[in-house]
Amino acid sequence: xxxxxxxxxxxxxxxxxxxxxxxxxxxxxxxxxxxxxxxxxxxxxxxxxxxxxxxxxxxxxxxxxxxxxxxxxxxxxxxxxxxxxxxxxxxxxxxxxxxxxxxxxxxxxxxxxxxxxxxxxxxxxxxxxxxxxxxxxxxxxxxxxxxxxxxxxxxxxxxxxxxxxxxxxxxxxxxxxxxx
Length: 180
Known about the structure:
eight-stranded mixed β-sheet; disordered N terminus; alpha+beta; 180 residues
């Protein structure tokens, strides 16, 4: 597994990107990214954040709280390419296993590979923290996203419901690489 730090790294051939903690000055760009991603979902016929009141449920003040608590990370390559929140608790999972829970994973469609890089970053951060698993959920019925998560190594572990949202719970068990 490639080691990531909050410093530039090479994502693909010749594409350099930085993943770092978000700062309050990133808030407008984060909201714009979410709006662009929802427009892309509409164009692709995908039903996820774009079919509910996503920015009503998660308004800018919510993201500012995640930023000030140090839980929101951003990927940059001269512009905002993606974001993800890394939480240490999630009510959807009741087993108490130390884990990172990925929420609000979003990548700009103009920045291919960003989503996978953010997941790898979350996995590395989890290992550094001593967590042996990264968990997330995806909307049930979003076959493309669930297939993508499966290709990233996130296995199906169950279903959940929160209001009208039905999600598929997924996790990836991590193995610490002890070789040099």
